[in-house]
Specification:
heterodimer, A: 225 residues, alpha+beta, Yope Regulator, Chain: A, six-stranded antiparallel sheet, 9 helices, 6 strands, 35% helix, B: 747 residues, alpha/beta, eight-stranded mixed sheet, six-stranded mixed sheet, 24 strands, 37% helix, elongated, ubl conjugation pathway (chain B), Ubiquitin-like modifier-activating enzyme ATG7 (chain B)
Chain lengths: 225, 747
């Protein structure tokens, strides 16, 4: 997608507008408290919008290769070695014990200077920080969306280094954003409505990777002036 | 007994799933039995307060950041470091009570996420696993407990109560394997006799009126904003029937003129309806130590504040009353607990293996795999990638064709690639052979087969590549000069037989015709698929050799094949070809020809009679890339066909038809003409007098082995021609030509 192909009814967003859209988005998130925040990279003026979602799952989902049971034998040895050092405090703990299997999804919204649009990065992990493979992520995406993800502009899922954190993330490649943003923006223009780019965009791309965007964003969040 | 009781009572809360899990962990069966006995005994005892311990929750980013810190900052420094975690009281039901550490955990003075409470921590990162093991855990816990105790005694904890939530993290980062060992400790001071419940926990909505609840929410919010924060770990509360007031912890004496009955509130990360989370423990201790003597009953509000779908509620907070032991006179630090259990429920460390997302080699592998999977997901859903990726490829020749074939195979994710070549890299090679560089040519040049392997591993460490610097004996190139040359040839043949048997697909990528003969014979005998690529100046052929039918059933299949293929050369086999179709359409894989099937002369020394410029294979530079890539793509298409090498050959005529595989056609040959920028897809039958794949050659090879092969190497081409009947064919043809000519003359 070359700069020369840019259409006048622009699907592009300059970074300032991106920030303004995010700010309005975050203001609404603050009122409904659905967990979005702005993460500033320390010592720079760069940042991104972030949300973490926790999802309790059947622990069998995690037993295959993930989570805590890796190299169980080694850990048993290690535990035996160590246990002598720490008394088994169960007796004194006065604690309730629960077993939890929880998946953590992290969603990051970044601005891409080269594409001049927002990009959705995400990753999923167990509570110890062990990342899930893309298949495992998908197995938790709603089947309706799973099918959609394999068609149309959704097939652009790929693995990339997070440009600000330098860690591997999955991302929805921005190269086909125009395909679904243009009709939405054209329609808004025709109806003389001003829409917040981030809201429109995220409500389309979010659900396919398990991220819900409440309807109130569409009604409550305005476009920047 | 009391302590044991309360601990065991806790097991009653474990779900059925947990029971199985506990049984699975070694030697725990007896514990379970014991539990049920004790549970029965417990039911009559006075109720004691139980707490839900913290679960450590680590973001992947935390491990990345720890790695960065260790590499760039800490190096071998094992001294304790200040870190920061946080916890949240707004979880929906079903989530564990967590202490979360993010990548920002190392920025101890940095901001805390909105409406979360910070917890100060100390990181002990050891340099060795041994140090991790031998670190005195009890001493670490005692030290932290002592700090908390001192802060309580001195009153410092009243001013800054965050000390009550102090935690310890002991880690060892094995950065060679990207394995991380860790053990959290959430120190809690213990009341020896436990805490007696005077009134069982109830939800706030059952204890407070709507007016009281909204008054509490408003009071809390206003205290938050006047404190310049979005979450208060501890605060005080007093209430009447229609209003609620709150105050900071330190205002206790002023807020409650009469200490007989006070209500203390804790920001509670737990979601259980009957139990407070861990942070309450040290707060109770603070209260007991500071005001214990004056308190009669303490009311505790575990403040839970969540917003679901935009609507906020604190109604599920829990409230209860306890009687605290009087600690005001005790001066020694009490017993403390807090090391986290591992996932098996035992006192022990946890570990996490992050090589998948941190080891650059693994990242390369998963990215390559993912890219291929995306091709499948996006474009060719029925693509069977495993078939391709798991194919073991033997590349005979590591020159222009070999290099390009190898690179294309890597692109397809093929992991197992073996090179055979006997040449060294010369100065002219690197510009055309993309696996070599100028440096490889120096001091005589490296062996191609070995240098190619090195380069593949540099390009992609996940490749399983192997190189064999060896020659392939050829017909018409005698090996009988001495015993040692014969022995060498015997060894080379055995090695080649072994290599072919260990691989799934054999690529013929050499620069002479006759060097392709031996692998053609061996692979035909072993029923291995051959993909052959050969270059002219601006023309090329890429083909799959016909794959003979499996040997076992000697009965019907093998004999009609040879019969029909012999007849096909002399007359049209009407029975096997549909009317209207040409002779060369719909040839099944087992009847397709090999590279030598179209020849009417046996392979011999093709370089002997040539001038120097003819010996060097000169071709247009793009040709090897085109042909090499096509060779791999042909292999992949064949592999996608359900019948593999037995697939009916597609021809140019099939270009408009429904393709037989998800990737399209499966031709027998691709012949390319660069001058015209054109490819055609011919198919041809196996020739019953073929000097390589005919039955008589294979039978002789299978019966006599090296003896037969040696005869071929050592003799002139007439040996194979006599054997296969080509000589006779020549004579007949010549006779026919003579008759034709005499006919012409007669006219």
């Amino acid at each position: 997608m070359m700069a020369g192909e840019r259409s006048p009814a622009s699907c592009y967003l300059d970074e300032r507008t991106f920030r303004l859209c995010c700010r309005l988005f975050l203001q609404h998130s603050e009122t409904i408290q659905d967990g979005w925040s702005w993460e500033q990279i320390k010592g720079t003026d760069e940042g991104f919008m972030k949300k973490t979602v926790l999802l309790p799952v059947k622990s069998s989902v995690l037993h295959k290769q993930h989570g805590c049971f890796m190299q169980a034998e080694n850990m048993d040895l290690l535990t035996d070695d160590i246990q002598a050092n720490v008394e088994d405090e169960t007796a004194g703990v006065q604690a309730v014990c629960e077993i939890h299997a929880v998946l953590r999804y992290e969603y990051h919204v970044l601005y891409s200077c080269s594409y001049q649009i927002p990009v959705l990065y995400f990753r999923a992990s167990t509570l110890d920080g062990n990342p899930l493979s893309l298949e495992e992520v998908w197995s938790n995406v709603h089947p309706n969306y799973r099918q959609r993800l394999q068609q149309g502009p959704w097939d652009t899922l790929t693995q990339q280094e997070h440009p600000l954190l330098g860690q591997p993330f999955f991302m929805l490649h921005p190269c086909r954003t125009e395909e679904f943003m243009k009709p939405a923006l054209d329609l808004a223009q025709a109806e003389n409505k001003r829409v917040n780019y981030i809201v429109s965009w995220l409500s389309v791309v979010g659900p396919v990777v398990g991220l819900d965007v409440p309807l109130s964003y569409c009604t409550e969040v305005s476009a920047p002036d | 007994m009391t302590e044991l009781d309360s601990a065991n009572r806790s097991w009653t809360l474990i779900s059925a799933e947990t029971e199985t899990w506990r049984l699975a962990s070694d030697g725990k069966k007896c514990v379970k039995n014991q539990t049920s006995v004790l549970m029965a005994a417990e039911s009559t005892a006075a109720p004691k307060l139980q707490f839900s311990p913290f679960f450590s929750a680590l973001e992947a980013g935390f491990w990345h950041q720890l790695t960065q810190k260790k590499l760039n900052d800490y190096h071998l420094d094992e001294s304790p470091k200040n870190i920061k975690g946080y916890y949240y009281n707004g979880d929906p039901d079903g989530l564990p009570t967590r202490l979360t550490l993010e990548f920002s955990a190392f920025d101890a003075d940095g901001p805390t996420p909105a409406r979360c409470c910070p917890a100060p921590g100390t990181l002990y990162n050891t340099n060795t696993l041994e140090a991790f093991k031998t670190t005195d855990k009890k001493a670490l816990l005692d030290k932290a407990a002592d700090e908390i105790w001192s802060a309580i005694q001195s009153g410092a904890a009243l001013d800054d109560s965050s000390i009550l939530n102090k935690f310890i993290l002991l880690t060892f980062a094995d950065l060679k394997k990207y394995h991380f060992y860790y053990w959290f400790c959430f120190p809690a001071l213990c009341f020896l006799e436990g805490v007696q419940l005077v009134q069982e926990p109830r939800s706030l909505e059952k204890s407070f009126s709507d007016t009281q609840i909204s008054s509490l929410t408003a009071a809390y919010d206003s205290l938050c904003s006047s404190s310049g924060t979005t979450a208060l770990p501890h605060f005080l509360m007093k209430y009447t029937d229609d209003s609620v007031e709150v105050a900071p912890l330190k205002d206790l004496n002023a807020f409650f003129p009469d200490l007989k009955k006070i209500a203390v509130c804790v920001y509670d990360p737990c979601t259980l309806p009957q139990h407070p989370g861990w942070p309450l423990r040290n707060l109770l201790f603070l209260i007991a130590k500071t005001w214990g003597s004056q308190l009669d009953v303490l009311e505790v509000l575990c403040f839970r504040d969540r917003t679901l779908q935009g609507s906020r509620s604190v109604r599920h907070s829990i409230i209860f009353r306890v009687k605290l032991p009087d600690l005001s006179v005790s001066a020694v630090c009490p017993k403390s607990v807090g090391w986290e259990k591992n996932p098996k429920g035992a006192m022990g460390p946890r570990s996490v293996n992050l090589s998948e997302c941190m080891d650059p080699k693994r990242l390369a592998e998963s990215s390559v795999d993912l890219n291929l999977k995306l091709m499948r997901w996006r474009l060719v859903p029925s693509l069977d990638l495993d078939k391709v990726v798991s194919t073991k490829c033997l590349l005979l020749g590591a020159g222009t064709l070999g290099c390009n074939v190898a690179r294309t195979l890597m692109g397809w994710g093929v992991r197992h690639i073996t090179f055979v070549d006997n040449a060294k890299i010369s100065y002219s090679n690197p510009v055309r052979q993309p696996l070599y560089e100028f440096e490889d040519c120096l001091s005589g040049g490296k062996a191609k087969a070995l240098a190619a392997v090195d380069r593949l591993q540099k390009i992609f460490p996940g490749v399983n590549a192997e190189g064999h610097n060896m020659s392939i004996p050829m017909p018409g190139h005698p090996v009988s000069f001495s015993e040692s040359t014969t022995a060498q040839a015997r060894h080379d043949v055995e090695q080649l037989e072994k290599l072919i048997s260990e691989h799934d697909v054999v690529f013929l990528l050499m620069d002479t015709r006759e060097s392709r003969w031996l692998p053609t014979v061996i692979a035909a005998s072993q029923r291995k698929l051959i993909v052959n690529a050969a270059l002219g100046f601006d023309t090329f052929v890429v083909m799959r050799h016909g794959l003979k039918k499996a040997k076992e059933p000697q009965s019907e299949e093998s004999s009609p094949m040879s019969a029909s293929s012999s007849s096909s050369c002399s007359s049209t086999p009407a029975s096997t070809v549909t009317p209207g179709a040409s002779l060369f359409s719909n040839i099944p894989g087992h009847r397709l020809g090999c590279y030598f099937c179209n020849d009417v002369v046996a392979p011999g020394d093709s370089t002997r009679d040539r001038t120097l410029d003819q010996q060097c294979t000169v071709s247009r530079p793009g040709l090897a890339m085109i042909a090499g890539a096509l060779a791999v793509e042909l292999m992949v298409s064949v592999l996608q066909h359900p019948e593999g090498g037995y697939a009916v050959a597609s021809s140019s005529d099939d270009r408009m038809n429904e393709p037989p595989t998800s990737l399209g056609l499966v031709p027998h040959q691709i012949r390319g003409f660069l001058a015209r920028f054109d490819n055609v897809l011919p198919a041809s039958l196996a020739f019953d007098k073929c000097t390589a794949c005919s039955q008589v050659v294979l039978e002789n090879y299978e019966r006599e082995g090296f003896q037969f092969l040696a005869k071929v190497f050592n003799s002139s081409h007439s040996f194979l021609e006599d054997l296969t009947g080509l000589t006779l064919l020549h004579q007949e043809t010549q006779a026919a030509e003579i008759w034709d000519m005499s006919d012409d003359d007669s006219i």
